[in-house]
Amino acid sequence: MGGLTVEQESWLRERFHNRVSTDLMERRIYSHDVGEMPPLVKPLIGRALADAVVQPESEDEIVELVRWAAQNRIPLVPRGKATSGYGGVLPVKGGITVDFWRMRSILEIDRENLTVTVQPGLVWENLERELAKQGLALRLYPSSAPSSTVGGWLAQGGFGYGSFEYGSFPENVVSARVVLPNGEVREFSGEDLSLIADTEGITGIITRITLRVRPLEEEVVVGARFSEVRWLAAALREVVEAGLPLWSISFINPQMARLKNRRPPKMEHGHPAHDEHRPKLPEAYLAIFVFPASREGEVRQDLERIIAKHGGERLLPELAEHEWEERFKIMHIKRLGPSLIPTEVVLPLETLDEALADLEGSIHQPLVIEGMVAKGGQVILLGFIPHDSRRFTFNLAFALSLSAIQKAKKHGGRAYASGLYFAHEAKNILGADRVRRLREFKRKVDPKGIMNPGKILGNGLLGTFMSVAGAFEPLVRAVGNAARAPIGERPQGAGRRDIPDDVAWYAYACAQCGYCVDECDEFYGRGWESFSPRAKWFFLREYLEGRAKFDQTWVNKFLACTTCETCNVECPLELPNEPSWLQMRGVLIHEQGHMTFPPFEIMRAALRKERNIWASYSKDRANWVPEDIRPKIKERAEIGYFPGCTASYVEQDVAQGTARLLDAAGIEFTYMGDGEACCGLPMLVAGLWDDFADILRHNVEGMKERGVKTVVTSCPACWLSWRVYYPEWAEKLGIDFDFEVKHYSELIAAKIKAGEMRFTHPVEMKVTWHDSCHMGRAGGIYEPPREVLKAIPGLELVEMEHNREHAHCCGGVLTLLENPDTGKVIGDIRVREAEETGAEALVASCPCCEVQFRVTMQKTDRDMPVIDLAHIAVEALGQRLPDPTDYALNLWATFEAMIWLMKPEPMAKLMEELFPQMVDAMPLGMGKMMRAVGRMPGGRLVLKAMKPLFPVLFPIMMPGMMGKVMPDMLEAVEKRVPMPQHMKEQMPDLMPMAMDNLMPKMLPDIVPLISDPLIDYLTGRAA
What we know:
By secondary structure, the chain is α/β, with parallel strands linked by helices. It has 42 helices and 28 strands.
């Protein structure tokens, strides 16, 4: 179809509000899966672009959408998390992609009957986590469990971990509730499930699933290595024949082990991370057997006998456990490509050795394989060939996926799934009788063919092409084998269009698996994938190929990341996601001159004037120092304390508490006083890199002058700057940097452990600890603050569900400066997690996190206290510190008002108020001329004719106007933004500095908003 009409789009917006998107790039993001088709084959698929993306919240909404779509003949494409690579979610005829992220609840857990009922958008990993709390576990789950959804796997069908005992996933489904293409809602169970399972959504939209679960038990993992495939196959056959009650069997081939050993190291801020936990794998067939601990007596002895009988050797327990823990990371080898050619087949166990030998012998590209043994003697092979989609030879080598299917069929097997690409194989995959039943059912309930067209029952030109290619398989294989590509990570020269080499390589290497999506706070704070890491990598690939451009919307998406680094933890490829976004901010803002978030310009002006981000006076920076501590601070010392801006000006108990702890621990320290500047991290993440470099020079020189060898921080962001970014930038700038950097909790915890410090006053309170992103994931400092809390008598520490490297972000930093409402959503999720622990207070050590939590508490009408670590520790020394909550909230109210004011719409309204002064200030008599035109008969028509020139004229005139308008602008700003006195006093200096940088970049967004109101003003029609 040719897209939605105005009336159709209007209907969608009326029904779904902000849960519908027609943005072009958002539609592209929701119109692809993890697969990567060869460029020469893509034309056979067509445009495959959704006309809109809709996120329903209920079954009733889906019913209404389906009935409307059927009436309007608009295709609907259900989409879980798009973790398959068979094209099942590609909207080949346009229409609407239906995304189920907002339907991800657990509806009922039935412990007695061992079932659970869920909505379709629930991710397997999250379901498993919730079941564990009830003493239950999944019977089986897919290899993509960290990202794939329950509904998606039922629609796709297939096998996973646990299939040895429990078979395919559809076999474990009790029932599925489905909205049929005619709008009818029907429950499917028993034999009727075959009309829904494995059908890619062509027969309806799944809204509810009831599946069987099992009691939770400890798992026993046994690993074995076999030098030859015949010994592996013989051992697996005897395991099946002996009826050993195993839960899961999986294995990898030697090529997989070889490339796993070659996989690149995890990168942290541009440097390889030392990974002591990555063992070297034997380059053999490695099998992993898993069973419940309660069955150990039935299993272990016979399993070990079978392994030994067939020439196998037991893997060391730690190696077997490591491989089992890494079971969801098989895509890691994609970094060696940076692309993969997938081939997945199902084989009978009887022919496994013959088939594998044939496959590995006939495919001369590096074929890596993971296998799973399923109930009934089936073996599922997930194969990948590392390659490079940027090379023409990728088109030729991709044909080897067809060769694998032909080889499987030769040995009694079949393709794994059909989807779009292998619809011509549907009869072999599902069986001819089942395909016939599906076709009849589809004709009955979907006569207009709106439900996910082009899948399973026919795929047009692509199917014809695939069939012809399959018929010439030997020739296709010979060509594919010759079309080789280098193996290994090689970013040099990958960059273009100003994208750095390593970032460009990672964009192509990203597996699009979606592991990073659900735990990304920018995603769950906003609900759209364009804010997720997966989408950023996809966008960069589109940009590199010339199919996308960096407008301000996408610049903002790269800016808005909270820098929490959760994506770095979740990524199975261990890509340096967040550090890459940091590089991109430098490219976009520092090099290309795009606009950063407007509040950063006010911060930059304050930094340049007074060396802090809170628009306070530098002369007041040391006012936090307690009078009894002041004489103890040395002029020179080997330890230099760096409190940072927020601890110095806003939440002074952070700095005061830290200083008192250092003093109580007998640690002598010096301090830069009112000569200290902001650590500079806000400027770095804002892309204002020149300012960061200036700040670095200032602070490094100040510490050197005081003889400092170890810099101690209380703010995790300051720690990150000093520990990670200062050394990196100092090297680039040719500055000598020889400082050790510590968080104060590390020093205090060491003193406590050594018996050199103890807390004397009980604090009778139950608290929970928030791991700051900049000190936790970015720094690995998890235990020292906990050790400090545990040393406080009377204090009970309880952990939040997400803690340490999996801790949720507070939602602060850049998100708050872009959209405080999103910050509230993210913060609320973390606060609710804290409340669920039963804690009486939330303890943190990051001043910015504490501001964010206090703001969230205020906005959500909560009263859980937010206490700084140093504050509560000082109380345990019998000393009292002031509560900074009220002052922090008042000061944040000023910043939030300024944030909203500096968006295009409010700024346009402010300028409307200043029309008289702006017109008077126009240079070259332009204002007088426009007033005269406005008063003339027909003047409105003349001004309307001039309107297209406004975007050209205003950037030319504005620099000459701003100085004259500024006094009135300041007055207008003051009416809208409540400011403390020190900020009011500085605004005449700060606002002009900020506006000089902002106005040229904001005008393209503002001029269209003020054009008609300006014409109304000039012609006397203004209200």
